[in-house]
Automatic annotation (TrEMBL):
One cellular component term from this protein's GO annotations in UniProt: cytoplasm
Gene3D superfamilies: 3.40.50.880
GO molecular function: dipeptidase activity; serine-type peptidase activity
Main location: cytoplasm
Catalytic activity entry: Dipeptidase E catalyzes the hydrolysis of dipeptides Asp-|-Xaa. It does not act on peptides with N-terminal Glu, Asn or Gln, nor does it cleave isoaspartyl peptides
Broad EC category: hydrolase
A Pfam entry, by short name: Peptidase_S51
Locations listed in the record: Cytoplasm
Transmembrane regions listed in the UniProt entry: none
UniProt-recorded name of the protein: dipeptidase E
Gene Ontology biological-process annotations: proteolysis
Organism expressing this protein natively: Furnarius figulus
Length: 242
């Protein structure tokens, strides 16, 4: 089996709480006692210094040191030496472009899938953990060389998944309709719509939905299905295009 360990969080901040407050117990349980320092990748936001300060403050309060990759003169070497990786949210296109620009796609994949170091993502950081960023909600403000992402799992995720508001008069496409349009293309993988407050824990070949809200699963050619926290999503880790 795979040694991979992933904590893929839908959002960094939940209404009424502070930065990573809703998932801090999950983070401590996930990283455990062995990890002393976390390598933070702030590429999804423009002000990387401010972003690193926010993340450092949070992780230090949980008992972990934090190094931000943008402060390293050799990002590849920083990944090679890392004990754990956390990629934060922001713009997914900006993030993926920076990962390619800094030659980090292969290095992160190797550290996570072969060496088994813990990988945590929130929002855009969760998007780039999947096959591609085709199902992000973000605007393409920059142009990465590919939409292919880290491929730590063989499906896609839609963080911040929103259900249609039955009282709304908005006539634009719902999130569900947009994912269905994606699945009109051939050989498109499953898409897991993670609502805010939800996260997916992957340990080797086991995937479990955690958090306080559910998720909506979209499979090409099938009706979407609703799932509660505790759902076993291990079947999504079997790489097979419909």
């Amino acid at each position: 089996g795979s040694p991979r360990r992933l904590l893929l969080v839908s959002n960094s901040t939940l209404h009424g709480g502070g930065y990573l407050g809703h998932c801090q117990q999950h983070i401590q349980s996930f990283l455990g006692q062995k990890v002393k320092r976390v390598l933070f990748i702030p590429y999804a936001l423009h002000d990387r210094d401010a972003y690193a300060r926010t993340a450092r403050e949070k992780f230090e309060s949980l008992g972990y040191g934090l190094d931000s990759i943008h402060e390293s003169c050799d990002p590849v070497e920083a990944v090679r030496k890392s004990e754990a990786i956390f990629i934060g949210g922001g713009n997914t296109f900006r993030l993926l472009k920076a990962l390619y620009d800094n030659s980090l796609i292969h290095e992160i994949r190797k550290r996570v899938l072969e060496d088994g170091i813990p990988y945590m993502g929130s929002s855009a950081g969760t998007n780039v953990a999947t096959i591609s960023i085709n199902t992000t909600n973000d605007m393409p403000i920059v142009y990465p060389p590919s939409l292919q992402a880290l491929g730590l799992v063989p499906f896609n995720i839609n963080p911040h998944y929103l259900d249609p508001d039955v009282k709304s008069t908005h006539m634009g496409e719902t999130r569900e309709e947009r994912i269905r349009q994606y699945h009109e293309e051939p050989k498109t993988p499953p898409v897991l719509g993670l609502r805010e407050g939800a996260m997916l824990l992957v340990e080797g070949d086991k995937a479990t939905l955690q958090g306080v809200t559910g998720a909506r699963l979209f499979l090409r050619g099938k009706k979407p299905t609703e799932h509660e926290p505790g759902t076993d999503f291990s079947f999504l880790l079997i790489d097979s295009n419909p």
